[in-house]
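Hey all, quick one. A colleague (J.T.) asked me to put the zinc ion job into the tracker so the inputs and the structure tokens live in one place instead of scattered across chat threads. No bug as far as I know, just bookkeeping. Sequence used:
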Amino acid sequence: MKIKLIITSILFSFIFFSCDHIKQHLAEAKKDTMQMEMPKTDSVKYTAAMVDNAKDATCGMPVAAGIEDTVHYNNKVIGFCSKECKDDFMKDAKKNFATIEWKK
Ligand SMILES: [Zn+2]
């Protein structure tokens, strides 16, 4: 009788463990697919319609050519062709903000 109880409890803990293991496995699989989908959404992160400037304030490239990064400044959304252009802009944001060519 005692042995039966032990076997039952071992069986139960095994089921519990495998359930937990499966759940963990599913969570990991989900995380994997999420990471795999990331670059896809990344490439269409920003569009010219989402920003207020007409041209990249640092290099002068039209935002319609593609936006890699944006910054919120003085209640405006400013788009840049690259992170480097944004970083350059932010080095002297106040001065550079005055030179931005806005959309008409
Ligand atoms: Zn640029």
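Adding what we noticed when we looked at it: The chain has two domains: 1-44, 48-97. The pocket of zinc ion is lined by residues 56, 58-59, 61, 80-82, 85 (CB under 6 Å).
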